[in-house]
Every structure is written in structure tokens, then in C-alpha cells.
Specification:
The complex is a heterodimer of chains A (about 280) and B (about 675). Chain A is an alpha/beta fold. Chain A contains eleven helices and eight strands. Chain A folds into two domains: about 130 residues, no CATH class; about 140 residues, no CATH class. In chain A, strands 1, 2, 3, 6, 7 and 8 form a six-stranded mixed β-sheet that branches. A two-stranded antiparallel sheet of chain A has the order 4-5. The mean pLDDT of chain A is about 90. Chain B has four domains: about 55 residues, N-terminal domain of TfIIb; about 260 residues, 3-Layer(aba) Sandwich (Rossmann fold); about 190 residues, Dimethylsulfoxide Reductase, domain 2 (3-Layer(aba) Sandwich); about 110 residues, Barwin-like endoglucanases. In chain B, helix 3 crosses helix 21 and helix 8 packs antiparallel against helix 11. Chain B has 24 helices and 30 strands. With about 675 residues, chain B is of the alpha/beta class. Classes of the chains: A alpha/beta (about 280), B alpha/beta (about 675).
């Protein structure tokens, strides 16, 4: 698989279909995102579920891809993307964070093991270029276990989980969909600052409500959490509610408007989109 | 466009987390946690996530400064270096080598600390070198050497996850070592028992099976109480004691006096709670002790440390995974700065300066005669400066004007120097007093290694070019040594320095940059084939006879107790959101949003009695000085106790603290002094 990806990346670069390829690079046994512009370096290109290229970076609170696009708007960037990464790109484009017209997605399918590891329902992108689609994982025992509990038990469960929070903001920092410049989690208006654990449940609820219909269930928040709060489980529950309430699924369809971006007249608030709120 | 990620090691606490610095076209844009890092595993704390921000601060020093009549003026490197070389030479000629004192830095790399150590001993000709380890874990180095023969964390961070019982005494782990707290919580969720011994209701208390709230400064009594319960119940590990240790009779004789009733009188911990907690610790298959400055920063710091070692040996909890005595080191490279011999009595690898054979080895390697007498420690340096015996100081990456006890005294001491050189990335409170300031670079602009609290030596890699004309500390030291005429400081890179370190330091013998590129190595690592050592004292202890040593320790009261005039106990520490003297964290926007300034924690009952409301400014006074500070009313402290974090220059806790020292480790008693609270008339923030 990686051989085919490197070959295709070489072809895209040599044929000038793109100016650069955004993918993972291996160095001394460590993987990290890298922008490939030189075909001679493609031998170090790797694939892994370890890192998502749709990662948001601090302190600019800007997605790394949108940061690159803002710095060089004319550069055409190819991006090696799995299902979750493609969903992130679609939601980011809907919210005017990136220009999909300047990107070319090299969609790759996850293996069955990878899909199981991530408990991913849709382990492939729409623009599938390389790899074979495998079945998604529809059951999530963590979700089921919680749904079988009473409301009181569920509340107690989440209260305990949130009490572990050490306010690293890692869930927000790692989230491809958290890009508000004026992040409400940081503001003393909503929760008292400088205190551990941060106010339960308000501190984490700010994020849950703000990205409830943007979440593309990549699980990066949960992987970034130093105290193992099962955030992906929570977002999967939220996603069910959003689907029930609005018949909306994030990241699936570029033309489907996000429900919480719609005014009462059902027109998206374009001026807010443009200002990146 | 160039976008890359450079793997490096976090510059804050001693946990040694790994992250990438994200660089676009030579500009630092963010931090990305390293998912395959053995400790941090793709997670970071709030400080780590924001560790790139201060690097580009507009306050960074970018040119050398020389103080003239009109204040600081910008100078060339040539002028700054030749000025310092000339002054140092003059000082040596008129006052001798022991008129110098040097503070090295736990923020700098191993290579830089080694070079500073070599410069002090080989070029200046004195052993007067120390650094802030004196203020945090000097008691650990001295105490654990007496008990075990090695003064470092015995086990590894990840092993905590598999402990059956974790005893935390004097460590606010969730706030000061958040990524270590991760493994404590994981252990707890797997069923481990958690015992917290702390006067404050620290964050982890909410998960503790037992919270023993001792009167500050009574740790020896608490630990002796644990041991008396264990011996009384016959829960000691008799085989381990017989085969691996000596001195049990001496210990028994001492601790039998510390009955739970007697301990309750001294510590105010209810005796039943003490008994239950002691039994829980003793019955665990794998029990780990974690401690930090709550144990070490006392006039009885060494006694406290030895008591933790006694307890671990009594129950056989040393020399196997998920056990041990685990001092958590507060700075990214405080372990390394000690390992490199930035201490007045030892060369790298804790090799004594008074040992003739060792001294001959270093004399031979450095081609110079070396001083024999151990040098002065941090607080002693300040005292000697006051007396006029120390005339010149060279301070690298330290800020004693905030970090040392009794700052008023430190200011007088530094002002009484004839010549002060400070090397830093910012014009700190200390640098403002300097005659010459050398602009150094941050961790993001240089290469080297840091050694974390679990003895893990890891790479620090250069992500961006140095700002302005600033230079890496190792280059500045080499330039200065050469300006003073030394030929022994010609290194092409930090890797060459490390090669010299490994050739002279047995515990680092097998460490090379080539090996470190693929991941860290835990010392002792004596040879190129050695995989490193996850836990110490497996078959024998590091003492000469291979045995662990029990020492009977009697409880002693702190140096200054509350009285009628100063009725409160003041204890100091850090917060989650800032680091030490704030030079880096107070230049980080999110951290300032969380905690913009200092505060004093006052118990609700005390606040009510003194009619103090939340947010009100109060005057805190001790025999050293006074500060005006905002009140925070909280049950985190109990009645009669107040707590102040020491990061903030405008309300510096160390104006108040007592410079009384542990007699052996010379660590000041930051954790206990007597204080009073007064209302400030007519002020309120509301």
C-alpha cells in the first residue's frame, strides 16, 4: 500500500498536479506530519493511524492546512487522507477554513484492524484512490453500556470522568473542528479560571455543545486526554442525537448545510462563516 | 513552503514528555504531542501544549548588554566577552579563585551543565558551583545516597500504573507533574489504593482512599508512625530485611516510640486513619512512594527522605517494578544538572572532588590542576557574597531574585558583588542586577540532551535558528573559556561534549547521540550494549556493601513555629498553570488567562474570623518581610495554615520564606514559616 501511495505521490508531483503532498514522514522510527515538495524524499513517506493531518495547531487556533493555504494561497496541496480526515476537510471547507479547490485528496482506505482499533463506522473516504473498502464497526460496547444505564448512573459516570480533567485543553487542541479564535473555554465568564478540576460539567460542555454537529468522530480528543476521559463515546452519543434531531451527519456531504449554522430563515450566517467564528 | 515537525523534549517539569515543534518556513507555529513517546503517549499538560509561545516573545534578549552609568547598553559579543574575561582575571588575581561563584541551570542541557562545571573548576579554579537542585532535591541526593547509595528516582514513571498501592507524600502530582498523575489515575482505575499525605487538599485527594492531613513539617513523625504500626502488626518483609538491609534494630528502637496516639499528638492525623493507611501500604504486593518538595524543602529534608526510604525497605518495596521511592524532580533537567556535577562537591556521575583518584582522572582529562576543597552551596554563596568573600558571580539560566528564600537578603548579596554576569533568555529580575548580560537561546534553538526524573536521557533538537544574535549556552561558555585563554573548550557540537561526558562518567558510559536518536536511555547505562536501567537496586543496593541501610530518625520541629505575633503557618509551592519564577509561563497567553497573578489561600474559618472576603488584598508578614496579595478563600488549606504560590514577582512568596537550612543538604525551609495576616484598609478588588 505505502509503495502505491509513494508512486502516486511522485506522479502527482512530477505531473505538476500538485505543488506539494501533505503526509506522514518517518525519521529515526518516529512519524510526524510533513509537507513533501521534493520527490527524492518520498522514500520516507509513511501511513499510520497515529496522526491526523487535519490537526489544529496552537496558538493560532488554525488548522495546519488552512495555515499553509493562508501563507501560500496559490500552492496546490495533495493530501493523503483517510475517511475521518476527509470528513474533517469537508466540514472545515463548509466553515470557510480551507479551500478544497486548492487541495487534491488522495483517499486511502483503512484496514479492518485499523477500523476496529478506532471503532470507526466509516473507515474509508469518498474519494477512495488506494486500498480496499472494509466494513465499518457499527457496535460500540462503551456506547451501548452507557445507554443501558439510568440517567442518574450516567450522570454519576460522567461526573467522575470530568472530575479527572486537568485542564490541559488537549481535547480542544487536537480537534480538527476546534478553530474558534475566541475560544469560550478559555474565558472566565463561563467557568472560573485557574482551578482544578474545571467546573463540572460546564467546562467540557462548552466544547460538546460548540462542536456537537461538526464532530467527525475521529477520536483525536480522546487520544489526547492525559486522564483517559472517554470523549469519543460522548461524541458518539451526541452524534446520535444530532442525527435524530436534524437528520444531519458531519463530514459526509459538502452540499448539506450544517443545522446549527442555519438561521431561522434557514440561510447560513455567511458573515459569521467568513469571520471564522 | 517548508512544513516540518522537530521531535524534542518538554522544557518544563521533570516528567520528560516528548513533543514535536511545528515549524513553517522557519517559524514556530505550535506543539504536536508525540504519540509514540513512552511517557507522554500523545498527551501533554497545558504548559507543554503552549511551550512554543515564550520562545518568540518580544522580550527575548537578542544582543549582549553591558551596564554603564546610564544603564544597560547594547554591546558586541567581542566586547561583552572580553569585558567579562578581563574582570574575571582581575578578580582571580586580587582575590583568588574562591572569590568566584557560579550558578548553573536545571533548564539547560546536560552538555551545557557539564561545560559550566568544567569551566568553573578548570578555568575559574573553584568548586563554588551549584544550581537550583539545592532548593528542591538536595535532600534527596544526600538522603537516598545514605539509604540506598544512589540519590535518584528508583523506578520508572510507567511502572506506577501497575502498583497496588501508591503513597503520595508532599507532591501535588496532578498539578506539578500532570503526565505522571496520568499513571496514578490509571493505577487507581485498575484497583490500586491511593494514600495522600499532605496538609493541603490537593487535586488528587478527590481520588484518594486516605487523605492524611498532617501539620506542616511533621513528616518524620507520620512515616515513623506508619513503621510502628507495621512492626506492631508484624507486616514487615522479614526476608527482604534480613537479606538486603542492615540497621533494622536501630530503626525498631527509634520508631517504636511513635505509637499512633503519639503521632496523632504531633501531626494531628487521627490515629485510626494512620493505622488503616499504614496497613494498606504494607499489605500491597507492589507499593510505590512518590514524594517531592513537600518532603525535601524542610530543615529536616534529609530526615524526611531517609524516612521514606526506611518505610520502603521495611516492606520490601525496593528493587522490583512498580515499587520504590520516587522523588519527582521539578525541572526538565534538574536530574541532568546534578548528574553532570553542577554541584559543589562532585564531578559528573557524583564522583567526589575530595577523592584523589577521581580528581587525578579529571585533571588528566582537562590538563589542569583542580581545587580539592568542596565549594559553597546556593544559600551559602549569598551569605559569602554579603560578607564580601565572594566577589564575582556567573549565573546561567537561574533567577534567584524570585526563587531563593528571603529575597531581600538575596538582593543585598547580589548588589554587594563586584561583578555579576547573567546569561539568560530574558532580562529576569536577577539579570537586571547584572554588569554584563549574555543573551542565550531557548530549548527550541539548540541541540543537546535533558535527563528526566526517571533518569531518562533524551534528545533536545534544534527547531529554529537562534533569535537575533543570541547564542546557545554551550557556545557562550566555550567562547568565554577561550577568551580567558583556555585551550580545552574547542567543541564542534554538543555531541562532542557528550562524548567527553561519557568517557569520564561511568553511569553515562553507554550513551551516544546515535543511540538517543531512536529514543531515550535510562542511566545507569555503562556500556554501548547496555539497554539502560528501568529500576534500581534489583539485586543489590548501590552502597559499598550492597545493603540498604536503615537509619533511626527522630522527629524535629520546623525551624520557625507560629506564635502569638505570627500565628499562621505559611507554606509555599507552585500551581498547575505557572512554572517557577514565571519567566516562561508568564509570557504565555493562555496560562496568564488562567492565573494572572498570585494569591494567598486562606481557610474559610480564618477568613471569617479576620473578616476577609474573596479577592480582597491582604498584607502577609513574616520576620523577613511583607507582601500585599489577593485572598483566595478555600478549604484546600486547613485552619491556621496559608499557602502562597511562589511564581509571582509582584507578590513574591520568597520575600517571606525562612532561609533556615537543613544542616546537611543545605536546602531552605520553604514549606514552613510563621506568618501573620492583616487587612489592607480601604482596598478591595470588588
Amino acid at each position: 500500500m505505502i509503495g502505491n501511495i509513494r508512486d502516486l505521490a511522485r506522479k502527482w508531483l512530477e505531473d505538476k498536479e500538485v505543488d506539494a503532498i501533505f503526509a506522514l514522514r518517518e525519521q529515526n522510527g518516529y512519524l510526524a506530519p510533513y509537507l513533501f515538495t521534493n520527490v527524492d524524499k518520498l522514500g520516507s513517506m509513511e501511513i499510520s493511524t497515529q496522526y491526523r493531518l487535519s490537526y489544529t495547531c496552537r496558538p493560532s487556533k488554525e488548522n495546519i492546512l488552512s495555515l499553509m493555504q493562508r501563507k501560500e494561497p496559490s500552492t496546490r496541496i495533495g493530501i493523503v487522507a483517510r475517511g475521518c480526515e476527509e470528513r474533517a476537510l469537508i466540514e472545515l471547507a463548509k466553515r470557510s477554513q480551507i479551500d478544497l479547490g486548492k487541495t487534491k485528496i488522495m483517499g486511502i482506505a483503512c484496514t479492518q484492524e485499523e477500523a476496529i482499533e478506532c471503532k470507526c463506522e466509516r473507515p474509508y473516504p469518498d474519494n477512495l484512490v488506494l486500498g480496499q473498502k472494509v466494513e465499518g464497526v457499527s457496535q460500540d460496547e462503551n456506547v451501548d453500556a452507557l445507554l443501558n444505564k439510568s440517567i442518574t448512573e450516567r450522570l454519576a459516570f460522567w461526573r467522575y470522568q470530568f472530575s479527572k480533567c486537568i485542564k490541559c485543553y488537549g481535547c480542544r487542541n487536537a480537534c480538527p473542528m476546534c478553530f474558534c479564535k475566541d475560544c469560550k473555554m478559555e474565558q472566565g465568564v463561563f467557568t472560573e479560571t485557574g482551578w482544578l478540576p474545571p467546573e463540572i460539567p460546564m467546562f467540557l460542555f462548552i466544547r460538546f455543545s460548540h462542536i456537537s454537529e461538526r464532530c467527525i468522530w475521529c477520536g483525536e480528543c480522546e487520544k489526547a486526554c492525559p486522564v483517559d476521559i472517554p470523549l469519543l463515546t460522548l461524541f458518539k452519543l451526541l452524534r446520535r442525537d444530532i442525527k435524530d434531531l436534524f437528520d444531519y451527519e458531519a463530514g459526509m456531504d459538502m452540499t448539506q448545510e450544517a443545522p446549527l449554522l442555519t438561521t431561522l430563515d434557514e440561510m447560513p450566517m455567511k458573515e459569521e462563516l467568513a469571520s471564522g467564528i | 513552503m517548508e512544513y516540518k515537525n522537530i521531535l524534542t523534549t518538554c522544557p518544563y517539569c521533570g516528567a520528560g514528555c516528548g513533543f514535536y515543534l511545528q515549524v513553517i518556513d522557519g517559524e514556530l507555529v505550535g506543539v504536536l504531542p508525540c504519540k509514540s513517546h513512552p511517557v507522554s503517549q500523545g498527551k501533554l499538560c497545558i504548559k507543554g501544549w503552549n511551550a512554543h509561545e515564550f520562545v518568540g516573545s518580544p522580550d527575548r534578549l537578542t544582543k549582549p548588554l553591558i551596564k554603564r552609568d546610564t544603564g544597560f547598553t547594547v554591546a558586541s559579543w567581542d566586547e561583552a566577552l572580553s569585558t567579562v574575561a578581563k574582570k574575571f582575571k582581575e578578580c582571580e588575581e586580587s582575590h583568588g579563585p574562591d572569590s568566584f561563584a557560579v550558578l548553573s541551570s536545571a533548564k539547560c542541557t546536560n552538555e551545557e551543565n557539564y561545560l559550566m562545571m568544567k569551566f568553573t573548576r578548570a578555568v575559574l579554579g573553584t568548586n563554588n558551583i551549584d544550581h537550583c537542585a539545592r532548593l528542591c532535591h538536595a535532600s534527596t541526593v544526600v538522603g537516598l545516597v545514605q539509604s540506598f547509595g544512589s540519590g535518584a528516582m528508583t523506578n520508572s514513571i510507567r511502572e506506577l500504573e501497575d502498583a497496588d498501592c501508591i503513597l503520595i507524600i508532599g507532591s501535588n502530582t496532578a498539578e506539578q507533574h500532570p503526565l505522571i498523575a496520568r499513571y496514578i489515575l490509571r493505577a487507581k482505575e485498575k484497583g490500586a489504593k491511593l494514600i495522600v499525605v499532605d496538609p493541603r487538599a490537593i487535586t488528587l485527594v478527590q481520588f484518594a482512599d486516605y487523605h492524611l492531613r498532617q501539620r506542616p513539617g511533621t513528616d518524620v513523625a507520620v512515616l515513623n508512625g506508619f513503621m510502628s504500626v507495621i512492626l506492631n502488626d508484624g507486616l514487615e518483609d522479614k526476608d527482604f530485611i534480613k537479606e538486603r538491609t542492615e540497621g533494622i534494630e536501630e530503626l525498631k528502637k527509634t520508631v517504636e516510640k511513635y505509637t499512633p496516639e503519639h503521632v496523632e499528638e504531633i501531626t494531628h492525623i487521627p490515629k485510626d486513619k494512620l493505622i488503616d493507611a499504614a496497613r494498606t501500604y504494607a499489605k500491597a504486593e507492589h507499593a510505590s512512594i512518590i514524594y517531592s518538595m513537600g518532603i525535601t524543602q524542610h530543615t529536616t529534608g534529609v530526615d524526611n527522605v531517609i524516612s521514606t526510604a526506611n518505610l520502603a525497605m521495611l516492606t520490601g518495596n525496593v528493587g522490583k517494578p512498580s515499587t520504590g521511592v520516587n522523588p519527582l524532580r521539578g525541572q526538565n533537567n534538574v536530574q541532568g544538572a546534578c548528574d553532570m556535577g553542577a554541584l559543589p562537591n562532585v564531578y559528573s556521575g557524583y564522583q567526589s572532588v575530595t577523592d584523589e583518584k577521581t580528581r587525578a582522572k579529571f585533571e588528566n582529562a582537562w590538563k589542569v590542576k583542580l581545587p580539592e576543597k568542596p565549594g559553597a552551596t546556593v544559600v551559602e554563596m549569598m551569605n559569602e557574597a554579603m560578607k564580601g568573600n565572594i566577589k564575582a558571580m556567573y549565573i546561567m539560566g537561574e533567577n534567584p531574585m524570585i526563587s531563593d528564600p528571603d529575597i531581600g537578603h538575596v538582593r543585598e548579596a547580589l548588589k554587594s558583588l563586584k561583578f555579576l554576569v547573567v546569561q539568560d533568555i530574558f532580562l529576569t529580575e536577577t539579570a537586571q542586577l547584572a554588569d554584563v548580560v549574555f543573551p542565550a537561546v531557548s530549548y527550541a534553538e539548540k541541540e543537546g540532551t535533558f535527563t528526566s526524573t526517571e533518569r531518562l536521557v533524551q534528545m533536545v533538537r534544534k527547531a529554529i535558528k537562534p533569535l537575533g544574535e543570541s547564542k546557545a549556552d554551550w557556545q557562550i561558555i566555550c567562547d568565554l573559556a577561550q577568551a580567558m585563554g583556555s585551550k580545552e573548550f574547542e567543541y564542534g557540537s554538543p555531541a562532542e561534549v557528550m562524548n567527553e561526558v561519557t568517557s569520564l562518567t561511568p553511569s553515562y558510559g553507554g550513551i551516544t547521540y546515535e543511540r538517543l536518536q531512536r529514543g531515550g536511555l535510562q542511566w545507569p547505562c555503562p556500556s554501548k550494549e547496555h539497554p539502560g536501567t528501568p529500576y534500581l537496586h534489583k539485586e543489590k543496593f548501590a552502597r559499598a556493601d550492597g545493603k540498604g541501610k536503615f537509619l533511626g530518625i527522630e522527629f524535629k520541629e520546623p525551624a520557625e513555629l507560629p506564635d502569638e505575633e505570627y500565628p499562621f503557618i505559611l507554606t509555599t509551592g507552585r500551581t498547575m498553570f505557572h512554572f517557577h519564577t514565571g519567566t516562561m509561563t508568564r509570557r504565555t497567553s493562555l496560562l496568564n488567562k488562567e492565573v494572572p497573578t498570585g494569591y494567598v489561600e486562606i481557610a474559610p474559618a480564618d477568613a471569617k474570623r479576620l473578616a476577609i472576603i474573596k479577592g480582597e488584598f491582604v498584607l502577609i508578614q513574616t520576620r523577613r518581610g511583607q507582601i500585599k496579595i489577593k485572598a483566595l478563600i478555600t478549604e484546600r488549606v486547613s485552619e491556621g495554615i496559608i499557602f502562597i504560590p511562589f511564581h509571582f514577582a509582584e507578590c513574591a512568596a520568597n520575600v517571606l520564606t525562612n532561609p533556615a537550612l537543613d544542616p546537611v543538604a543545605k536546602i531552605p525551609e520553604y514549606k514552613v514559616c510563621a506568618a501573620k495576616i492583616e487587612k489592607v484598609q480601604g482596598t478591595s478588588s470588588y
